[in-house]
Amino acid sequence: MLLLLLLLLLLLLLLLLLLLLLLLLSSTTNYYYLLLLVLLLLLLLLPVLLLLLLLLLLLLLLLLLLLLLLHHHHHHHHHHHHPPPFTVTKYVFTQWLLLQLIAHIGGHACFTNSPCFDGFKAD
């Protein structure tokens, strides 16, 4: 349907160009005919353009409706069970404790930038 309308619009535009070319090639300098022709073609093109605009608006509306339906479906069928805030706090605190322990053990070990590493260097 949309393709057909686009083809019709293209055909009308080609017709307009052809008629303008014929008028320019003709030796008559009567601009009233030219003006009348342009107005007539605009009147023919106007319903086609309005129909195309309407179809575009309908397409956008359908897309919006689809997005809303998908959003609604996502929220009603995919429940994300978030843990309570206290559980999150406990989890973060446990991670922090583990990091402190690793850092403490690591502090007693010899790192590459540490002076005690010199004794472990390969000959």
From TrEMBL:
Keywords: Membrane, Transmembrane, Transmembrane helix. Its main location: membrane. It comes from the Eukaryota. GO terms for cellular component: membrane. It is found in: Membrane. The chain crosses the membrane at residues 36-69. It is a multi-pass membrane protein. PROSITE patterns: COX2_TM. GO terms for biological process: electron transport chain. InterPro entries: Cyt_c_oxidase_su2_TM_dom. Residues 1-69 form the Cytochrome oxidase subunit II transmembrane region profile domain. This is Cytochrome oxidase subunit II transmembrane region profile domain-containing protein. The lineage of its organism: Eukaryota, Metazoa, Spiralia, Lophotrochozoa, Mollusca.
